[in-house]
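Two entries, shown back to back:
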Amino acid sequence: MKNEPRALLDPDRLFASDPAQRKIARRLYEAIEELPIVSPHGHTDAHWFSENAPFADPAHLLIVPDHYLFRMLYSRGIPLERLGIRRNDGGAVEEDPRAIWRTFAQNYHLFRGTPSRLWIDHTLSTVFGIHERLDANNADETYDEIDRCLKTEAFQPRALFERFGIEVLATTESPLDSLEQHRQIRESPWPGRVVTTFRPDPVVDPDFEGFQHGVRELGGLTGEDTESWSGYLRALAARRDFFRALGATATDHGHPSPRTADLDRKSCERLFAAARAGKLNAAQADEFRGQMLTEMARMSLDDGLVMQIHPGSVRNHNRDLFEAFGRDVGADIPARTSYVDALRPLLDRLGNEPRLSIILFTLDESTLTRELAPLAGHYPTLTLGPPWWFLDSPEAMLRFRRATTETAGFQNTAGFNDDTRAFLSIPARHDVARRIDCRYLAELVAEHRLEEDEALEVAADLAYHLVRRAYRLEHETLTS
């Protein structure tokens, strides 16, 4: 493909416009640019790496799995069927990947100013060597070049994993998953490290569709009596051990709220019996989820798994879309979230345990200065996760540093977390995070609030060292 005179990616993108700060940011970035990528939480498909088969086509690699992209297109009246998103009822959807790609390219202007635009431009330029801005005129030419690349060995999943400099990548699976793909990866001669993450929501959230069936299946997998509270807890602990044996270092909890509880045994048994019977009201369901966060924290104290809590999303807000397409179709909306009182039962019980590690995320930026930074700046169990989901944007990343650093410092944060289903966007997302952190550090240096040698150390911590520590990945020799 022809190259435009102006590069698609400016080498100083995302740095401050002030010349002095920009020079400092550039020096900091050049020192950390090539550090390995640690991707400790995401939703890529382990099957890609166990099978190492070529990706099917540009549309199903870059568009169909990425809710950031199709939610924007849907907001402008483009039906999800036209984007190849499968319906629950098996109804007709667009099957031609080129047609899906053309629709995306024709509407690429919708992403101006969004992080998705940064990620796609980065992917096109650095992964595929395409240096033209995508539009309707070059849609077919761009599709053909990507498709040509995907048919070569250099673009198979394991080769890209190594090319991207990924040291470790975590997927996320249900407790009911067999983890067969992870077993195949571990038994293969390939040295890449892909680990699983324990996501218990299907069997600890009474509002999760199929909860009662899932609890019964949990009992069948473990041989425990999951009709009893004690058997249910033993079954969860057994599955956690199973996940740990296949590389897991963390759990992940996507509850509607961060509410925790510390109930007596009889109250737990009553709640669990009502949950199995499907007879909990909304308040009781929230109380049960809260108790389960405390139970999961107690288990983490026993088995060492790092606990991630990312509350505050109203899931499946668009009921019609949920009924037509199921979960994870981009209709989840952030909600107001309060942490101080909600976490207190758990923290009263376990908050001073140095062996317990809990990483907190938020979709409610108003809590950063008021609640989360002070909590993480005090309790030894707590660490702040990075800007996540709707907030993994340049502006939100800057706001995060400015809102939290004065109270929590840098060392009480967990590095960067890309949380993506879109494999090829991982380097782009980490690049944005590294550039924004260097921009912020350059500001501190220029204002004589930090020496540049200190800023260099912090930049490396934020890009690489903190995430390895936060997710307890340092105990093994990792491969790049």
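entry 2 starts here
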Amino acid sequence: MPKITARTIVKLIIACLLVGLVLSTLNIDLRNILESGQDAIEWLIKVGGEFFGWALSYILIGAVVVIPIWLILYMVKAARGRK
């Protein structure tokens, strides 16, 4: 793992300054960035919730068929192993 030296910190400060100047020239400030981030997080939560709701219904439908078959096969395999 590389060391974090004073030179690395100075480079990071210069990079932050340059990026900040460019963003300021484009009329993008900290408030805009934070609001956009908050909007993105809210969108991800909404879409993620919809996806998991959709997926859960299909998982439950499939489980009605898959779990009993698996249990039967498991018990048959266990019974064969006891002999």
